[in-house]
Amino acid sequence: MNEANSDLTTRLVHHSYQPPSDFVALQPAVHKASTVVFPNVAAMRARRWLDKSSYTYGLHGTPTTYQLEERLCTLEGGKQCLLAPSGLAAIACVALALLKTGDEVLIPDNAYGPNKSLAEAELAQWGITHAYYDPLDLSDLAARITPRTRLVWLEVPGSVSMEFPDLPAMVRLCRERGVVSALDNTWGAGLAFQPFDLDGDGSRRLGVDISVHALTKYPSGGGDVLMGSVITVDQALHLRLKLTHMRLGIGVSGNDTETVLRSLPSVALRYRAHDATARELACWLQQQAAVVQVLHPALSGSPGHEQWQQLCGGANAGQGAAAGLFSVVIDPRFSQAQVDAFCDSLRLFKLGYSWGGAASLVVPYEIETMRACSRAHLQPGTVVRFNIGLEALEDLRADLAQALVAAFAAR
Ligand SMILES: *Cc1c(COP(=O)(O)O)cnc(C)c1O
């Protein structure tokens, strides 16, 4: 075909120019594809989507997604990784891959709320039952595992109320009973502890089967990308998850993947900075009259502090590691309206869900409506959760101080 004679549009679609192939830059390129082009029919017939030895279709991976998957395996100490368009989609993919009619899934009472909604409103429709267990009571989990139990969700620490469970003991129990354990590792982010090496000594004697991570939080770090990952160390389990992932058409965009790749190298530095400021503010809030309890696993007296010390205490040169997330319980003598006024009075802390970004966030919660198990370890009062961003400690402390005065000063 004489290119010069063909139609303009045809020439724009099939352009003859090819850039030199030896371009090297520091940042991975954004590869975007639905169609992946094969050099000949033999290569097309030989396509393999099961491993990363080639490319078949955009949904099954591009150089950009392969690179993020491999880096996330490095972050969490896993071997295989699947990407999903949100943390919740990653959770749903695990549930749909491993559960069928007649099975039961166990979920901690303090789990990320939408995981519970998935079980209550969607899995139930498929004849999959669920039960909630008390994350602070190993015997409760042990008693609830039956022959129908196919999946146990673990979360460290619990959403909003921040209880830190005995993760190694729970994983050991799941192993003994032959049940798959899936950890929501969004808080730990691969930085506070090693999900596949809970002894932390490189032995890999004890680890979760699956680690799910809402990359939306710390890996993205910007409050602008939704993404999730499902990481494993067992190839057979990975393939089971991958088949469901493929059949459900779960994929992520090249641009979003590149955004996470761009943020990932700074994740450990950011995590440490969020942690340091959060711990200072949590300690300071403990001294404030309106606050009856601070729920931060690194603070002694917080529910599960000893378990945090055991699992995360050795990280960060003996300082231990924690995310920049904690909650407080406001004295019940203050009304809900006053707690709302406190949140509204904050200027640097913005009202909004999610966490892990540079901006500090605040959310008041009605914990009574969220929990079925014992709340004996929680003081009565209204729970307010803070995500500590990257702002300066003194600015955040001053903001909290003025809002405490504005909302709770004696009147
Ligand atoms: C945010 C979050 C998720 C879900 O992530 P999305 O990307 O928002 O769907 C899951 N688990 C935990 C603990 C989270 O904080």
UniProtKB/TrEMBL annotation:
Transmembrane segments: none annotated. GO terms for molecular function: cysteine-S-conjugate beta-lyase activity; pyridoxal phosphate binding; transferase activity. One of its GO terms (biological process) is transsulfuration. Pfam families: Cys_Met_Meta_PP (PF01053). Keywords: Lyase, Pyridoxal phosphate, Transferase. It comes from the Bacteria. It catalyses: L,L-cystathionine + H2O = L-homocysteine + pyruvate + NH4(+). Its cofactor is pyridoxal 5'-phosphate. The modification N6-(pyridoxal phosphate)lysine is found at K217. SUPFAM superfamilies: PLP-dependent transferases. PANTHER family: CYSTATHIONINE BETA-LYASE-RELATED. Belongs to the trans-sulfuration enzymes family. This is PLP-dependent transferase. It comes from Comamonas antarctica.
